[in-house]
Amino acid sequence: MQPRVLVVDDDPLTRRLAESALGSHCEVVTADDGATALVMARRMQPDLIISDLVMPVLDGVGLKHRLAADARLAATPFIFLTSRSDEETRLASLLTGADDYLTKPVDVRRLLRRVEVILERARRVREASLECFTREIDAAFVPGTLPCIPGYELAIAVQPAATGGGDIVDVATLADGSLLMLQADVMGKGARAKFFAYAFIGYLRGLLYGGCGLPAAGGPAAIMDRLGRLYGNDPLLQDFYVTGALLQFEPRRHWVRSCCAGAIPAFVLVPDADGARRLAAGGGVPGVFEAPYAEEACVLRPGAALVLVSDGVTEARDAGGTLWGEEGVGATLEPLRHAAAQTICDAILAAAANWSQGAATCDDRTVVVLRRLAGESWGEEGKESA
Amino acid sequence: VKITLERHGNADVVRLVGPLNAENVGRVRMELEPVLLRAPALVVFDLLHVPDMDSSGIGTLIWALKRVRTQGGDVRVLHLRGMVRRLFELLHLERTMTVCEEFDAAIAPAA
Q1: What is the ipTM metric for this complex?
Q2: Partner of A281 for a Cys bridge, out of A175, A197, A294, B73, CB 3.0 to 4.6 A?
Q3: CA dihedral in degrees (A98, A100, A103, A107; nearest 10)?
Q4: Cα A116–A118–A121 angle (5° rounding)?
Q5: To the nearest whole angstrom, how far is the Cα of A288 from the nearest Cα of chain B?
Q6: Contact check, Cβ <8 Å, A243/B91
Q7: Which residue in A has a C-alpha nearest to residue B29's C-alpha?
Q8: Looking at the complex, does the CB of residue A240 fall below 8 Å from at least one CB of chain B?
Q9: In Å, how far from its chain's centre is CA A313?
């Protein structure tokens, strides 16, 4: 997308010249005084403002001060373009925090170069601060310490995207001793998607621990119903949506209840059978899916493994653009029926990377494996089995 | 992606050509904004020539759906193909948005 530049000048000739000089590189919009420019800037959030100094209604210095007082516009790059060439005015103008001060008549190539340099610098600053923000928030999306479950292995592996994906893994121990595992993917990328993901986890934890004025949640389908209603109606969170699989695991009975809300259905691998059972019951995207969610249950027999993958894994593409798909995951799992949980995680990520020939991932790749150790038989076995 | 907007009776038809993804959804949303501001009765997304869509693309359709429904209108999708159809099935979106195969059915007023 082209950068958007707001040119402010009461002289129509200067506005036309700026449009002509910058038009092939930027989307140029114009205003003929500072007050109009302020209204436009608030509405369109330009990437750069180029302003005259002396104008009716609100002059250039006044405009810069008003922008500086607006948190959403204070950091917008700003260039003065004026016929006032005295050093005193120049210094006083730059003291407002402007990025540059150019005098008319300006050489078009010089103006273009200054615009390029300032936009590039602003882009780098923005990226650096976003990277710092997303690094911190990413660390909160994957549990640092996994719960120790007697007779089980739990492993999580994440390969972050080059451009900031939105995978979330959350593991919470409930009051009844069961474990709730969420593997979710925010639709969209970048810092706003990260914020949404963080808010989503907040809603989930609020529900689990009896917050938000609601009673503590029931099973995965009931939790997904409530999550959808809560954040689907939150006006701050209208632009982003999340898909996910929510599983409740009762270690004593080896019982797993699963609700899949638009995510890749979990794979259940057992040591002595071909293929994998899929836990597909659930529904659509929370917040827009209006029917009640469904859930299904299975019991993990000794040696069985529950495998969750995010769509960043199945959407790995080879050089020709062919998707690796759920079939690729299934085929990779076949020889891993007796493998340890961490080995399964690593093997799936390695196979996805191999499929995409090591190309940078454009979405997070996450694998979660819960595996019951072979020969473990303590606890009460459930009635169904996988 | 290229976007073309047409009016057919009460329906605003949005034809997209090319993949809809994180790279272009910002522009698509900007171009849709004037349509959504008119509180349209019906918005039809024709996806015949959309070979590929990522989660940001789906997010944009859902964003439009929520905006239109909030104002009392509806959204339909026309001509789901290949990978985009699979994505709709995976997300159960066919239970949220009406999916049409025929243009006339897509722009017909609700019964």
Answers
A1: 0.72
A2: A294
A3: -140
A4: 105
A5: 7
A6: yes
A7: A239
A8: yes
A9: 16
Q: How far apart (Å, rounded) are the C-alpha atoms in residues A51 and A58?
A: 11
From chain B, pick out residues whose CB is under 8 angstroms from the CB of A315: 54
The total number of residues written for chain A in this structure: 386
- Beta carbons of A265 and A278 less than 8 angstroms apart: yes
Range B74-96 average pLDDT: 88
The b/e string for B12-34 (b: 16+ C-beta within 10 A; e otherwise) is bbbbbeebbbbbbbeebbeebee
Q: Between β-strands A296-299 and A255-261, what pairing exists: parallel, antiparallel or unpaired?
A: antiparallel
Q: Is A315 on the interface with B (CB under 8 A)?
A: yes
Q: What is the mean pLDDT of residues A183-191?
A: 76
Q: Which residue has the tokens 């000048």?
A: A9
- Could you say which of A188, A239, A262 has the minimum Cβ distance to residue B90? A262
Backbone region of residue B92 per phi and psi (left: phi > 0; alpha: psi in -120 to 50; beta: other values):
left
Closest CA to A348 of A318, A368, A321, A320: A368
Extract the tokens encoding A20: 């002509």
Name residue A323's amino acid.
L
Count of A-B CB contacts under 8 Å:
62
Contact A156, A143 (CB under 8 A): yes
pLDDT over threshold 70, residue A194: yes
Work out the number of other CB atoms within 10 angstroms of the CB of residue B82: 10
Angle A60-68/A34-44 helices, nearest 10 degrees?
30
Residue type for position B53: M
Contacts of A336 (CB under 8 A, 6+ apart): A269, A305, A343, A344, A347
Residue type, A351: A
Return the structure tokens found at A341.
């949980």
In chain B, how long is the greatest CA-to-CA distance? 37
Nearest to A288 among B55, B65, B83 (CB): B65
Q: Which pLDDT does position A212 carry in this prediction?
A: 47
- Which of A190, A285, A362 has its CB closest to that of B93? A285
CB-CB neighbours of A251 under 10 Å: 19
